[in-house]
Amino acid sequence: MNPSDPFGTPEPVQALSEAIGKLVAQTGPLRLMHLCGSHEHALNQHGLRQLLPKELKIIPGPGCPVCVCPAEAIDQAIQLAKQPQTTLVTFGDMLRVPGSRQSLAQAKAEGASVRMVYSPYDCLKLAQEQPTQTLVFFAVGFETTMAGVAGLIAQSLPKNLYFLVAGRYMPPVLRLLMEIHDETIRGFLLPGHAAIITGLEPYRFMETQYKLPSVVAGFEPADVLLGIWMLLKEIAQGTAGLKNAYPRAVRDEGNLKAQAWITQVFDLKPGVWRGIDLVEDSAFVLREAYRDQDALRALNADPGFPAQGHPPGCQCHRIMLGEKQPTDCGHFGQACNPQNPIGPCMVSPEGTCNSWSRFGIRSL
Amino acid sequence: MSRIELAQGAGGRGMQELLDQVIRPALSNPLLDQGHDGAYLPGQGLVMTTDSYVVSPLFFPGGNIGKLAVCGTVNDLAMCGAEPLWLSLGLIIEAGFEYDDLQKILASLAQTAKEAGVVVVTGDTKVVEAGKGDGIYINTTGIGRSRLAQPFSPKALKVGDRLLINGGLAEHGLAILAARESLPFETPPISDCACLHGLVETMLATCPEIRLLRDPTRGGLAALGNELASASSLSILLKEKDLPIKSPVQAALQMLGIDPLSVANEGKLVAFCPEASAEKLLKVMQAHPLGRDSAIIGEVIERQSAPLWIQTQIGTRRLVEMPLGEQLPRIC
Predict the structure, then answer these.
(1) CA of B105, closest CA in chain A: separation in Å?
(2) For residue A1, pLDDT beyond 50
(3) Domain B154-319, architecture per CATH
(4) For a tag site, which of A75, A133, A191, A363 has the least CB within 10 Å?
(5) B64 three-state secondary structure
(6) Closest Cα to residue A112, out of A99, A127, A129?
(7) Residues B134-180: pLDDT tens digits?
(8) Touching check for B32 and chain A: CB below 8 Å?
(9) Domain A66-169+255-298, CATH
(10) Range A6-63+180-244 classified under CATH 3.40.50.720
(11) Which chain B residue has its CA at the smallest distance from A337's CA?
């Protein structure tokens, strides 16, 4: 928490949790879902569920880009990292994600060339510094990250820089959730970071088609509680508005320049969300104009074996859809832990199982 | 797992397992099993410790591998309540390493040793093939004389004991990370790398009832708290609002998604003392140049379901896990 941020101080938190208590007394027991690993992280890091009435449950959804990255993409990344004169560059989170046979960290320990960066723009420098080396950026993330990647790709790039793209677009998975969910979820907390890029419009179908309230929320304690309170207000008054509780970062129309970059560079195709399924129009893929930079087309990324299926006994798919909680899974905290993750929700600090494990959460 | 992984060297849970399951069982004996930063040797009141330095980059704001190789070992002795006396110096140099850099490192090492009042009395130098080292690795072994009547032990901790720290958290780890990854800071973060034996001497002189000292190096305060609480069979509760973290450090770590509790320090110590002595000890620490931002940051509590807890700024309580330890490899 940033102590200088008023959204992280005790006073607004206190006021909001009291206001939430009053609204829940009116609405009765209910379940809300968030779609963002950073929201689960904020809830756990600050112990926010301790401040909510017992009748109100905040259910974690599928919102961790590292977790939903399919094993096939990891296998391809490892295959590339093992090529001579080739370095695979990615975010630190990706290193321990299990592929079908091993993780990037294990491949690295065996000599594969893997480098960690903090910004996609670091690849540009690496590629310029090592003109004889093939650099492949393994791009994983939701629209917030992919906007930066698109901005990079839209520049004129060194010939030795390629992209293995496994980014995912959030709104279609919410549509999928709406089609299969059990109708006990009464509202959705929308991801503030993703909405900085897209704005509110891609979520309008929640209001018009499904008639359920949804609110974009930020990540400091009072931001999260404000989002919850605004959802409860919609529910209490019987409305289904699409609202923005994070106006200090999110403009309703989003970041138009970032949207233009994304549209210029990426097309949306059906894509596998690990643990969930194939989701229509949810995978960012490079457009034809950028085929020379596309590692899948320009380099040999075929590991030569099919991606391994779902780990036996793992409940991640049902956890990501809000049907189960981590402690319902027999592997949780036993064979599956942050050090040796079995399922996708345990691999990244933003994954629900990982977060519950690190912060000692045992129930909603 | 059939091979060593990088994360097992980073001071978190992976490292603890490597030590507990492989290294300690192979060598177990009563002196080693004290499990402190150094060993209290029988007889003469001597304390011995060793540490190897593999930091990357070799030069960073606030220090370099030479200064670190003295401070780290001196601090391990200081945490045993010992006055540091002698050092050995092992150098493993990669062929092709610049003479100039070696001289800068040695000059810094000599200067730090002189200021700390320790003497390098023996050494060893090896050169390895190009590509088989990372410029230079350094090992120092330190011998000192204990000022304590009774060696420190986590078993001495009691419910109600207070934890004090001598200043801002996470500065060394962030400085290394920023230097290594060329993170674009307007003012680069500076390592807190410093020898703490002088501060310790003052603290022990005023407050001989200090129960335990430990420096939160790799794995940071989170690893320290977990280790000591587990070893004492009690729990520790930190107070988030009392943790001294400089705001630029806080902001940078937040942006990087790194928990300041799990980041390394090289010029910080945590002292455990009885509640009644805490304010007195705090004043002594704050009066020392290396302790101006000292704070009381928590207390020892009855054993809970987990060793380490934190009371958040907004009044809730959560546990703090042993860090996994792969976020910042090769920091010291």
Answers:
(1) 27
(2) no
(3) Alpha-Beta Complex (3.90)
(4) A363
(5) strand
(6) A99
(7) 999 999 999 999 999 889 999 999 999 999 999 999 999 999 999 98
(8) no
(9) 3.40.50.11740
(10) no
(11) B324
